[in-house]
User: What shape does this take?
Amino acid sequence: MRQFIYFLIISSFLCPLSNINSQAADNFHSPYNSSVPEKTNKIISKKINNCPDKPKLLLISDSEWCEIYNNADKAISEQGLSEKLGHEKALSIMLGLVFKESSFRKNIKGRAGEIGLTQIMPSTGQFICQMKEKDLFNAENNLNCSAKYLNLLLSDNYFAGDLEKALIAYNQGWGNVQKGIFFAEDIHYANLIMHEYAPLFVLTK
Assistant: This one.
């Protein structure tokens, strides 16, 4: 009996430690509504307020969904991502990135200082987009800056249209990626967005 009590005490200390993840984005609660089967969560093509119906897996209001969707749609066009990837793919990638980074919450800040929907670093916002930290909490600014940065990473001066490398660099920083240094968690990050999250935001015909 005494050994069983000791086991329970030790387990209570070890279990929380096993759930700690070093990724800043994983500080946030799950973006999934667990009552909805993941495989059925496609956006239908019906338009409401100039945006598709909100997927049931998102735990945000309809108005928030429409604001983010419309600003993402605008950002990919204005920053050239639509031209590089095709409009539907660019939009799905951008929304998948938002889903991974912030669960569609625009007023959050990560442990390392990442800001808003796309968890842009203040230094990136300043250098790439000439935006101050406070500006990046605005949904339109944040998405526009992220699209601009991703478009730059896809340019010939960086990763020449290689989306996987561009996403790895977005998460890890472009310096190591240019040197051919990849970390397993960053490769997983890129593939999660491309193959699991982005497909959730492809309009059904």
Notes: Residues 1-48 have pLDDT under 50 and may be disordered. Strands lie at 47-48, 51-52. The CA atoms of residues 96 and 198 lie 4 Å apart. The chain has one domain: 42-201.
